[in-house]
């Protein structure tokens, strides 16, 4: 079964995607489906984005009839893609050459441009789950993309907050935050000409890191060439620092937040950003999403963000 | 409860005048306020807004060909005598107001303020620059409303004009629930090469040469018809089916020009159906404007027979195979006069456009000579300036007459409507090297600006001539991005286009002095993409760096 169901208790849409359960769990390296010669790719390739075999959203989903006035359902119209970063199974963002990450960014831009051509697509969400701690089923370096037919609830919450902040400060919220972060430098982990990387004041996870472009820009689509290069560098440096933190391949959820598409224009108020939400609080401890976090959306962070920033800042990494 | 003498209930203020009642509601938004509400009765011309007149301000004319530009207090629009005589309602639905005062339709701007109406579904909204004041009106003409109808909302925005005009355009989009087509056409049109002398042989010749170009649409302009109102091919052209089929056979979408609300005094339509025309107070046909050396009247689509006729015309064109309609001189559909039904001229105009849309379904409709705000949601593309021309002259008076300079000026000063209300049509690119007075800078400027603003790109040249073809390719490469223009009230415009086909681009341009500077962000990596579909229907998008292509 594949459909959207409305939750009137929280005013949000749930995706019911029943074949998700049939998904293979962590196949061995030898049978990686996305290695060249694997099930998905008979030949070689550099970067690929392809329709997920077990999608939660589809361009042509099964038709669904909604009959109840309260228990509403809709077709799961949208798209889910798997984004393969490289043909090298052993690699990762932290290990990839900078050039490969720059190409990856161009691919993200192109995927966004392609999918926004569908008027029904309202939000294009690009992300990576790395490590079994966050449910990644394949080791091969890859991320995913969801093209939603609605604005997901946390994004909608962000847009409301940006709108409220704009009214209060007569300025984009992140632009306003940047003024403070750049002058105090307490929470900066890494900075280059156009990008700033911080453990935010409002971090929910112990080693949460955000990347903000210094210029006000709301989407992948409008980043300059320099900004894309600098973003590639920031992504590499943060993931390298993460891996050195406990000297293990560090699990994380990496998420890109851009303006919605085919709806109201949020370009003036919304600021493109990247969130890393790593579940680790220590080498062997997990910061779980338990009742308080899941049930109330209130996060309890056991780590002082300024200290996390200092720890990460102090890890020296070299990028050529 | 009463506030300042007016009753106040549910956050609504009620005003009662002799002939009408208005209920107003004010909503705060981040940039200012929106005043909405409802109205009933016979309101005629209602004052909604009044403030002190600034020294300099930005005005906008009601229709495609009129200016959008900066003006100074005391300044008047310079319009050539001959145009004044012939153009009638072309200037304004209230021509006498326009001739005696400065008028800005739908919205006006100051350095730190933009005030505008968000819709024009019933009334004609405008601002009159009167003495030392600016007064905003809604004109319902002679219409009467038994029940409350929504008031065209008024928005008041504070900030910088350059930032606010796109914000105004966005609120119009939201208020009217606009979601425009993704098809932003590229094509060829006959007008600016052949004008009314076009023959079928010219079409065949250019069709033969057009496959070298990246056109989607091939459009026959004015000249194919028997008369304005008699929409059958004249003796120079084959039957409609053959016209469309021939274009289709060459791989293009067949496009055609028509002036659906205009009726020439010499046409059979005017002779046979006087009762289908909008009338003056003496029940004579009301002169809408003069063109083609003829008096032109307006079709009264509130007459059921006339409406049926209009739908039939479009059905015939559609059935013949046309899928792109340039509908011109549309303001004729919105002139105030006596109609069969007592609805406002704006309602009548929108009804006419709805009839056309119903019949042509998802074919592309390009509006021209059209009242702007009442057309939103009913057209796919819109001309937003006067006609271009094979000459560029900043020195001649600029309103309403063909001139590449003024056409390009409006392309910039109305850019914020693009992609929100419709696709802006900057008018055709003329890229030929003979039969033209345009110099290379002028051709380049037109192509670059149209491309950077992500506008429609239509070329109008005899393709057998020597043509600066690369400029069409440049214009197309510069599309696909999002534009912002700084300096709408200045002499020098700065156009920023982000995310174009060649990345982020900036153009500083002085239209009067023919000076410009283009800077292109060249740092981005270029990828090659190959799309393959698996047996199970899944799409695979393969990417590699350009120049890294081992097979090529
Ligand atoms: Zn692999
Ligand atoms: Zn910002």
UniProtKB/TrEMBL annotation, chain A:
Catalyzed reaction equations: alpha-D-galactose 1-phosphate + UDP-alpha-D-glucose = alpha-D-glucose 1-phosphate + UDP-alpha-D-galactose
Single GO term (MF): nucleotidyltransferase activity
Signal peptide: none
Name of the top EC class for this enzyme: transferase
Occurrences of domain Galactose-1-phosphate uridyl transferase C-terminal (ranges): 160-280
Documented EC number(s): 2.7.7.12
Galactose-1-phosphate uridyl transferase N-terminal domain residues: 4-152
Keyword Magnesium in record: no
Record-given protein name: Galactose-1-phosphate uridylyltransferase
Protein species of origin: Thermosipho ferrireducens
Biological classification of the source: Bacteria, Thermotogati, Thermotogota, Thermotogae, Thermotogales
TrEMBL record, chain B:
UniProt cross-references to InterPro entries, sorted A to Z: Aldolase_TIM (IPR013785), Alpha-glycosidase_related (IPR050985), Gal_mutarotase_sf_dom (IPR011013), GalA_N (IPR055092), GH (IPR017853), Glyco_hydro_36 (IPR002252)
Pfam families per the UniProt record, alphabetical: GalA_N, Melibiase
Keywords tagged on the record: Glycosidase, Hydrolase
Alpha-galactosidase N-terminal domain boundaries: 26-157
Coiled coil: none
PANTHER family the record matches: ALPHA-GALACTOSIDASE C-RELATED (PTHR43053:SF3), GLYCOSIDASE FAMILY 31 (PTHR43053)
Name of the molecule in the record: Alpha-galactosidase
């Amino acid at each position: 079964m594949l459909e959207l169901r409305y939750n009137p208790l929280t005013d949000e849409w749930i995706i019911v995607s029943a074949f998700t359960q049939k998904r293979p769990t962590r196949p061995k390296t030898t049978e990686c489906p996305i290695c060249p010669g694997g099930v998905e790719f008979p030949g070689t390739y550099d970067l690929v984005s392809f329709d997920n075999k077990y999608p939660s959203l589809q361009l042509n989903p099964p038709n669904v009839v909604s009959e109840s006035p309260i228990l509403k359902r809709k077709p799961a119209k949208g798209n889910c893609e798997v984004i393969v970063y490289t043909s090298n199974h052993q690699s990762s963002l932290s290990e990839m050459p900078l050039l490969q990450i720059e190409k990856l960014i161009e691919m993200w831009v192109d995927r966004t441009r392609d999918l926004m051509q569908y008027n029904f697509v309202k939000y294009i969400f690009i992300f990576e789950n790395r490590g079994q701690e966050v449910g990644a089923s394949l080791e091969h370096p890859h991320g995913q993309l969801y093209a939603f037919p609605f604005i997901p609830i946390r994004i909608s919450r962000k847009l409301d907050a940006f709108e409220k902040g704009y009214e209060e400060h007569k300025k984009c919220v992140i632009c306003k935050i940047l003024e403070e972060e750049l002058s105090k430098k307490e929470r900066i982990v890494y900075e280059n000409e156009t990008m700033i990387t911080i453990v935010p004041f409002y971090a929910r996870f112990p080693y949460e890191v955000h990347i903000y472009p210094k210029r006000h820009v709301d989407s992948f689509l409008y980043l300059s060439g320099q900004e894309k290069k600098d973003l590639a560098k920031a992504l590499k440096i943060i993931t390298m620092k993460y891996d050195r933190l406990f000297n293990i391949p560090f699990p994380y959820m990496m998420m890109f937040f851009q303006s919605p598409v085919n709806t109201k224009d949020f370009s003036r108020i919304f600021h493109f950003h990247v969130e890393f939400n790593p579940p680790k609080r220590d080498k062997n401890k997990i910061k779980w999403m338990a009742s308080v976090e899941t049930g109330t959306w209130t996060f309890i962070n056991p780590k002082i963000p300024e200290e996390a920033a200092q720890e990460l800042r102090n890890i020296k990494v070299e990028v050529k | 409860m009463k506030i300042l003498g007016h009753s106040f209930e549910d956050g609504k203020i009620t005003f009662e005048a002799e002939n009408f009642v208005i209920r107003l509601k004010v909503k705060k938004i981040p940039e200012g306020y929106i005043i909405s509400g409802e109205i009933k009765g016979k309101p005629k011309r209602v004052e909604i807004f009044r403030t002190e007149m600034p020294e300099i301000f930005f005005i906008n004319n009601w229709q495609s060909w009129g200016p959008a530009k900066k003006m100074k207090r005391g300044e008047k629009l310079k319009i050539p005598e001959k145009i004044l005589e012939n153009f009638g309602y072309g200037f304004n639905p209230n021509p006498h107001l326009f001739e005696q005062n400065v008028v800005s339709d739908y919205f006006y701007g100051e350095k730190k303020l933009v005030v505008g109406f968000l819709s024009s579904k019933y009334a004609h909204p405008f601002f009159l620059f009167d003495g030392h004041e600016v007064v905003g009106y809604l004109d319902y003409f002679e219409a009467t409303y038994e029940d409350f109808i929504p008031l065209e909302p008024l928005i008041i925005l504070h900030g910088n004009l350059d930032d606010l005009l796109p914000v105004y355009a966005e609120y119009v989009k939201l208020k009217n629930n606009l979601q425009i087509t993704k098809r932003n056409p590229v094509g060829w049109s006959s007008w600016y090469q052949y004008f009314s002398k076009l023959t079928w042989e010219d079409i065949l010749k250019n069709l033969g040469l057009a496959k070298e170009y990246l056109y989607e649409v091939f459009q026959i302009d004015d000249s194919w018809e028997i008369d304005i109102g008699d929409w059958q091919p004249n003796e120079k052209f084959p039957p409609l089916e053959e016209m469309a089929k021939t274009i289709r056979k060459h791989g293009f979408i067949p496009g055609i020009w028509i002036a659906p609300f205009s009726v020439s005094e010499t046409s059979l339509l005017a002779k046979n159906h006087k009762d289908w025309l909008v009338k003056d107070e003496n029940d004579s046909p009301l002169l809408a404007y003069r063109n083609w050396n003829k008096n032109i009247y307006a079709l009264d689509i509130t007459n059921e027979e006339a409406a049926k006729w209009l739908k039939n015309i479009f059905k015939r064109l559609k059935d013949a195979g046309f899928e792109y309609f340039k509908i011109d001189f549309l303001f004729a559909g919105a002139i105030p006069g006596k109609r069969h039904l007592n609805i406002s001229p704006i309602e009548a105009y929108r009804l006419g456009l709805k009839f056309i849309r119903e019949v042509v379904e998802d074919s592309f409709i390009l509006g021209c000579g059209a009242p702007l705000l009442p057309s939103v949601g009913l057209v796919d593309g819109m001309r937003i300036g006067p006609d271009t021309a094979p000459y560029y002259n900043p020195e001649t008076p600029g309103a309403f007459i063909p001139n590449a300079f003024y056409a390009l000026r409006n392309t910039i000063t109305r850019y914020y409507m693009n992609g929100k209300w419709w696709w802006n049509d900057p008018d055709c690119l003329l890229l030929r090297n003979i039969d033209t007075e345009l110099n290379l800078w002028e051709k380049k400027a037109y192509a670059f600006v149209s491309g950077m603003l992500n506008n429609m790109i239509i070329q109008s040249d005899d393709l057998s001539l020597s043509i600066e073809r690369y400029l069409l390719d440049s214009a197309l490469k510069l599309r696909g991005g999002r534009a912002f223009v700084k300096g709408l009230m200045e002499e020098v415009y700065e156009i920023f286009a982000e995310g174009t086909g060649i990345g982020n681009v900036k153009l500083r341009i002085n239209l009067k002095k023919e000076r410009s500077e283009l800077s292109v962000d060249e740092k981005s990596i270029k990828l090659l993409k190959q799309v393959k579909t698996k047996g199970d229907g899944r799409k695979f998008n393969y990417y590699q760096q350009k120049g890294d292509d081992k097979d090529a």
